[in-house]
Amino acid sequence: QRLVKHHCLDIVYPNQSFTAADFVTAAKNAEKQIYRRGKKVITVGGSGLFIDAHVYDFSMVPPNRSKRQFYEQWDVAGLQAEIINKKMTLPINSKNKRHLIHTLEREGLPAPTRNPISASTIIVGISPAKNERLERITLRAQEMIDGGVVDEARQLYDEYGQQNAFRGGVYSVIGQYIGGNIEIDALEEAIIRSDMYLAKRQMTWFKRNKDIHWFDTAQDARVWLEDSLKGTL
Fold first, then answer.
1. CA 161, CA 159: separation in Å to the nearest integer?
2. Are the CB atoms for 192 and 202 separated by under 8 Å?
3. Under DSSP, is residue 108 helix (H, G, I), strand (E, B) or coil?
């Protein structure tokens, strides 16, 4: 971040709702700033819906936050039954609570539509071998724990409560530890399992995208990109 200006970081508080539609708005505003400086845009991320919504310019249905808050209290089985009772079509991932809530929030309207990718856009994916992915995730877990992520999570829970922002990834696992459901000795392994599962889900999402050029390493991707962008940089 000291070398390249980053955008769309630290733009909302944990107790504020931030949808894919909100991200697209923020990302487009950042793009305008970057283009005005004569620079190229690099969009990086792991959240498939948010990235796709931006890159493919999804037609987004405005969020209904009151309805979303209402259905947040329901379990997966109840949400599935509600969708069926309302004669709506279950989402492809019918066990994902967030997807079920979004279906009800849209009142059965189709999911956001995907537009053709811009001719000036190149999408690159890096898919390291599973053992390398495990090594990186393990190192990341160790660094987060050593860096005080547990104390950080406690402070955030105390200040903001059990917000949606803390229900995924490492915060969800640490929440189990803070709640006394797992021991400190098992915390690192639980974080690693959680992140490996997340990485698997991310790969499943992105592997369906035929526009992505895949590489085993970041270096391979860089060499290919430099060759592809010759004369445009």
1. 6
2. no
3. coil
- Phi, psi at residue 214, to the nearest 5°? -95, 145
Sign of the torsion formed by the C-alpha atoms of 189, 192, 197 and 200: negative
Distances in whole angstroms, Cα of residue 217 to Cα of each of 129, 132, 153, 156, 208: 9, 10, 32, 35, 20
User: Angle at which helices 149-160 and 130-146 pack, to 10 degrees?
Assistant: 70
What is the chain's Cα-based Rg?
A: 20
Q: How many residues are recorded in the chain?
A: 233
Quick one: which of 201, 133, 202, 141 has its CA closest to 177? 141
- Distance between terminal CA atoms of the chain? 20
What pLDDT score was predicted for residue 230? 82
Residue 65 near residue 17, CB atoms below 8 Å: yes
pLDDT band at 232 (very low <50, low <70, confident <90, very high): low
pLDDT in tens, 165-196: 677 788 889 988 988 888 988 999 999 999 99
Question: What is d(CA 92, CA 224) in angstroms, rounded to the nearest whole number?
Answer: 34
Per-residue pLDDT at 233 exceeds 60: no
> What interhelical angle do 169-178 and 184-207 show, nearest 10?
160
Q: Is 90 left (phi over 0), alpha (psi -120 to 50) or beta?
A: beta
| Residue linked to tokens 């005080």 | 148
